[in-house]
Amino acid sequence: MALDITPAVLAYVPPDAPLEQFEPARDRAFFADPNKTSLLAGASSAEDLTPYIGTELKGIQVSQLTDAQRDELALLRGVVFFRDQDITLELQHALAAHYGKQDRDPNQQDPRHVTILGHDFNIRAKDQAGAAYHGDHSYEVNPPSYTLLRMIRTPESGGDTIFTSQVALFDKLSPTFQKTFEGLYGIHSSQKSYLASINGGGKPHRAPIVTEHPLVRTHPVTHLKSLNYNPLFVTGIKGLNDKESFHILNFLYDHLHAADDLTVRWKWTPGSIAFWDNRAVVHRAVPGGYDPSTREGKRTAVFGERPFFDPSTSESLTERKERLGKERLNVEGKLNGKVVNGAHLNGNQMLDFDKLNVV
Q1: In whole angstroms, what is the distance from residue 140 CA to residue 151 CA?
Q2: Is the pLDDT of residue 72 over 80?
Q3: pLDDT tens per residue across span 325-344
Q4: Where is the signal peptide (predicted)?
Q5: Whether residue 340 is found in the same domain as residue 274
Q6: Is the pLDDT of residue 185 over 90?
Q7: Whole domain around residue 98: which residue ranges?
Q8: Rounded to whole angstroms, how far apart are CA atoms 317 and 325?
Q9: 203 and 335 co-located in one domain
């Protein structure tokens, strides 16, 4: 029923025109100090929750961030978490505006934010896609870049959100698969969510859209390669027949769901916040086992650039680590026995490579 073409679907006329592609303002991360000095100095601690993704900043209020700290926030690892925040909805809207033009999910009723509610359905039931991994409405010509979710109330247990690094997902592929996927385009579609919305009583304000985006994308700021895979909205691979697409998408599904080492699971508490980069992260809510009325959050997001892949300017995570390692050895070798900032260096001393801004 949820995905059927019912009389209600046939009779419905969305009120808004399709979105047109545009060039967003320069990403705020370009204005940030790469060392994130201001942001980290304002926090009492910064804890990396896993080796690949997720940092919790403590002792700092998002509502009080300076513009410099807001810019530096955009450079942290995929998703950043905060607890016990005092930010209001109006300040949340203002924070979103700092990063760009606020986008609007096709099913979003308030033009400035989405209200996130709890769910108690069986994720294994037919047509229950609400708990699937996804990046927020990746089918748009300008999918979101930054998203902030602030939880107002949360259950004592349950309702967690899982975030996985698509940069690390790409990096863990074999070099052969990496090269193969770099030439492919995923077909992103909102058709299923459109049908489910209308058949569930919703009133989406835009018609469904089908868009082609590269399966591997280049991050415009970090220039890291990442998968651009979204199991909730990617329905096929451009240029491949159904069976070929089926096998590739099944592989990517298994690859994603086996990525426990590339994933962080966040337990929400009232007043907690997650801020993440949709271009490099997919996420999923974990429903079931709690009273849905005890979970409510407000989500804001901003438009990003149209996804692109530029092999001449991008590199994988491993390639970057190897390049920086070689450059580190080269710089340390040249500075061995020389004076840096008034101090003599020798082969037994470690140079703080990051402070040299060699990237």
Answers
A1: 25
A2: yes
A3: 888 888 877 766 565 455 44
A4: none
A5: no
A6: yes
A7: 7-315
A8: 12
A9: no
CA distances to 197, 221, 316, 336, 359 from 326, in Å: 52, 22, 15, 15, 11
More confident residue, 32 or 137: 32
Instruction: Report yes or no on 1 lying in a domain.
Output: no
- Collapsing DSSP states into helix, strand and coil, what is residue 102? strand
Does residue 136 sit in the same domain as residue 95? yes
| DSSP β-bridge partners for residue 217 | 226
65 and 192 share a domain? Answer: yes
Q: Can you tell me the distance from the alpha carbon of 18 to that of 141, in angstroms, rounded to the nearest whole number?
A: 10
pLDDT at 209: 94
In a domain, 23, yes or no: yes
Average pLDDT over residues 206-223: 96
201 sits in the region (left: phi over 0; alpha: psi -120 to 50; else beta) called left
Q: Report the CATH number at residue 144.
A: 3.60.130.10
Are 16 and 41 contained in the same domain? Answer: yes
Give the model's pLDDT for residue 68: 97
The pLDDT score that the predictor gives to residue 31 is 96
Residue 337 lies in a domain: yes
Q: For residues 192 and 85, which has the higher predicted lDDT (pLDDT)?
A: 85
- Residues 239, 224: Cα–Cα separation, whole Å: 25
Say if 2 falls within a structural domain.
no
- The closest of 244, 255, 271 to 133, measured between CA atoms, is 255
Task: Clarify whether residues 214 and 109 are in a common domain.
Answer: yes
Asked if 299 and 332 sit in the same domain, the reply is no
Q: What is the pLDDT of residue 196?
A: 86
Instruction: Show the tokens assigned to 97.
Output: 């505006």
Domain count, the chain: 2
pLDDT above 90: residue 154: no
CB distance 107 to 198 below 8 Å: no
